[in-house]
Amino acid sequence: MSRATRYVVVGGGIVGLAVADRLSTEHPDARVTVLEKEDNWAAHQTGRNSGVIHSGLYYVPGSKKALMCKAGASSMVAFAQEHDIPHEICGKLVVATSEDELPGLQRLYERGLANGLEVTRLGRQEARQYEPNVNAMAALHVRSTGIIDYGAVSLALVRRLEAAGARLTLGAEVLGAVPRGDTTVLQTTCGDVAADLVVSCAGLQGDLVARRLGHHPRARIVPFRGEYYELRPEASHLVKGLIYPVPDPQFPFLGVHLTRGTEGHVHAGPNAVLAFAREGYGWGKVSPRELFETLSFPGFWRLARKNYRAGSREVARSASRRLFADSLRRLVPEIRDEDLVRAKPGVRAQAMNRDGSLVDDFLIERDGNVVHVLNAPSPAATSSLEIAKHIVGLLAA
After folding, report:
1. Of 357, 224, 350, nearest in space to 301 by CA
2. Can you tell me the mean pLDDT for 59-67?
3. Under a CB-based contact definition with an 8 Å cutoff, are residues 349 and 289 in contact?
4. CA separation, residue 239 to residues 69, 122, 328, 360 (Å)
């Protein structure tokens, strides 16, 4: 009798858990193990985002992000319905607040259509039918955008894995690997784990774990902290759903936006500032080794030279609640400084090339019997079930 295939997934965020769940479903006789270095699941990017089910509006047509995000929005809603996870397809507005943003809004409209989305152009008064307090010269309404609690999705995946007999190990950091024939022996803080096939979904540690497993990724993870505020309850009526700005085409992030969560709280953010550690959730969290890795990487300085003005504004906004509120007032003028209270920040694991360009699409590489997920920032949570399907397909090839 042949031995059951041993799959090991590194990383207990939503992507890693989705991959493990897909393996358990498609290969019920296999042995599936998930290794997570933290003491709880979904501790980093998954548990610290704004909880949006993205539509796929922003992504290059035909890219992995565009295709997996659109499909992922549907599969995520189906999963939420199956497991009674609170969610809502509320749609969102992308608003142009000045005339110079209108060409960017038109480009987004055309991209949305190219990605097969239901996107509607709105005038000022039409936009206010969705968001009575919004400041909009013009807007797009994207019907398929929604909200969900990705932490709850992750815990539902954990329960499914437990029921399927998977081995789920918290507090297990991968330190290295030794090949033994067709087997890879992962060396972890909880002992050695033998695998026939490995999938690394290590998020903020993705390139580091790849190197520990003997791979040489072409991109480097550079961590950007996203800081959030929350509207006080007495101001939350100002936002009915999701309000986004037109992105600055010269800056590689979406800009601060307003999102109502499944519990009714309105989140504002995130900005984007360099984190001084891969898990640097505040200015005081500094890892000299990790900061040196970032500052010695040529790609970082090329990006910084190209975006230093926008980057300086992000740093200033990080230090000033008034400046942060000014950004929000462009969207909803009635928001006051005192309406904002600090909320839990996140860190985005952004893969960067040596030439300073950000890796624009999901980056997944196979090296022997190991698949490395090397770039999976937003919309990875939305797309997680589709990313899992793609990776399991790679393992079968």
Report:
1. 357
2. 97
3. no
4. 25, 18, 11, 30
Query: In degrees rounded to 5, what are phi and psi of residue 318?
Result: -65, -35
* Alpha-helix residue ranges (DSSP H) falling in the chain: 14-26, 64-82, 102-114, 124-130, 150-164, 206-212, 288-295, 298-306, 308-319, 321-329, 380-396
CA dihedral 199, 222, 360, 138 (to 10 degrees): 130
Binning pLDDT at 50, 70 and 90, where does residue 63 land?
Answer: very high
Residues facing residue 168 across a β-bridge:
34
The number of helices, as runs of H, and strands, as runs of E, in the chain is 11, 23
DSSP-assigned states of every residue in 173-206: -EEEEEEETTEEEEEETTEEEEESEEEE--GGGH
pLDDT value of residue 250: 67
pLDDT of residue 112: 97
Please tell me the pTM assigned to this model.
Answer: 0.96
- Distance CA(350)–CA(251), nearest Å, equals 14
The residue type at 203: G
Which is nearest to 260 in space by CA: 388, 86, 128?
86
Quick: pLDDT tens for 279-291: 999 999 999 999 9
DSSP state of 358: B
Domains in the chain: ranges and CATH: 6-46+151-219+360-396 (3.50.50.60), 220-358 (3.30.9)
